[in-house]
Amino acid sequence: MEPPAPPVDEPGHADRPLPSHADLNLLRTFLAVYRSGSFTAAAPLLGLSQPTVTAQIRTLEQQTGRELFTRLPRGVEPTPLAHELAGQVAAPLDTLAALDGGGGPLAGQRAPVHLAGPSELLCVRVLPALAPLVAEGVQLRVAQGLPEPLLEEMGSGRHDLVIATRRPRGRVLPSVPLADEEYVLVAGPAWARHTGEGDVCAALRDVPLVTYAEDLPLVRRYWRTVFGRPLTARAAVTVPNLYAVLSAVNAGAGYSVLPRSLCQEYLDSGRLTLLHAPEEPPLNTLFLVQRPGSGTNPDVARVRELLRAAARDW
């Protein structure tokens, strides 16, 4: 739990302006806390102890005369003044960081780009798109995972870029829409013949359902948005990830809902069959999230721009 805020709103201090000659170390500490979301997460990024980070933020708050962060049970929430201050100091401090080494243009050494996202998308779309940059010397460190943990790790400085299936909340992590992922209802050819051309929902009642989670998130969403009714089926097979779903369905285990990007090759070859083709298939927008401050590494910008260009064809 973060330490309590100092009493910075005493009479005579509430309207004190931002300090005109604030210590750069205090501003660097402020920006690290602002971007990471907690004193604890900012400390290792700065090479400081957590009490030192707390003391420096307290000093800056005393200089401004106003609270910069609201202390929460886990981490901190920037106040409107903190958003204003971050907007003023982020670009100059990032420029100074780039000139001061740590992988910047004067350091003489290129830093790896830390990229994370859904495992299936990374393998099918992202890594093939980035192969030319790797050939040119860009170093990649790639991690997989779900959006929430990846974005939390980004806040602590672990990732430079994250491909997320939802837009991050708040204004701390900037993001841009990357692509729309289409979801399709598929099965092997034998099960497709079993369902025929009638009511798909009725025909699938006797077909095993394969999914990666007990709560059937993709299949339930498909039923709700396409058929306008709740899903009543239960999973016959649950597996760890969408690759395993694809493998099981391709082997004839049953039907499922999958991202088109993951199974398009199987559809093209006839190994899988599209069971339903709605006029408006379910879509999910992918977002490209960049860690503030990661722009000091020029290769981060190269990866970001190539991903945005490649996503136009996804």
Compose a concise summary of this entry:
This protein has helices spanning 24-36, 39-46, 50-64, 80-99, 119-135, 147-155, 189-195, 200-203, 217-227, 242-250, 260-269, 298-311, and strands at 69-71, 76-78, 113-117, 140-144, 161-164, 175-187, 210-211, 237-238, 255-259, 273-274, 283-290.
Outline the structure in words.
Helix 1 packs across helix 3, helix 1 crosses helix 4 and helix 2 (39-46) packs across helix 3 (50-64). Helix content is 44%, strand content 17%. The protein is built from 12 helices and 11 strands. It folds into 3 domains: 24-99, Arc Repressor Mutant, subunit A, CATH 1.10.10; 113-173 and 291-311, 3-Layer(aba) Sandwich (D-Maltodextrin-Binding Protein, domain 2), CATH 3.40.190.10; 181-283, 3-Layer(aba) Sandwich (D-Maltodextrin-Binding Protein, domain 2). By secondary structure, it is α/β, with parallel strands linked by helices. Strands 3, 4, 5, 6, 9, 10 and 11 form a 7-stranded mixed β-sheet that branches. Strands 1-2 form a two-stranded antiparallel ribbon. It has a two-stranded parallel ribbon with strand order 7-8.
As residue ranges, the low-confidence spans are 6-17, 102-109
Percentage of residues in strands? 15-25%
Shape: elongated
By CATH, the architecture of the largest domain is named 3-Layer(aba) Sandwich
SSE topology string: HHHEEHEHEHEEHHEHEHEHEEH
CATH topology of the largest domain: D-Maltodextrin-Binding Protein, domain 2
CATH class of the largest domain: Alpha Beta
Overall pLDDT metric? 86
CATH superfamily of the largest domain: Periplasmic binding protein-like II
Q: What's the domain count?
A: 3
Q: Using the CA coordinates, give the radius of gyration.
A: 24 Å
Count of helix runs: 12
The main sheet comes to:
7 strands, mixed
Q: Give the helix level as a range of percent.
A: 40-55%
- First-last Cα distance: 43 Å
Counting helices, strands and paired strands, the structural category is alpha/beta
Instruction: Count all strands and give the number.
Output: 11
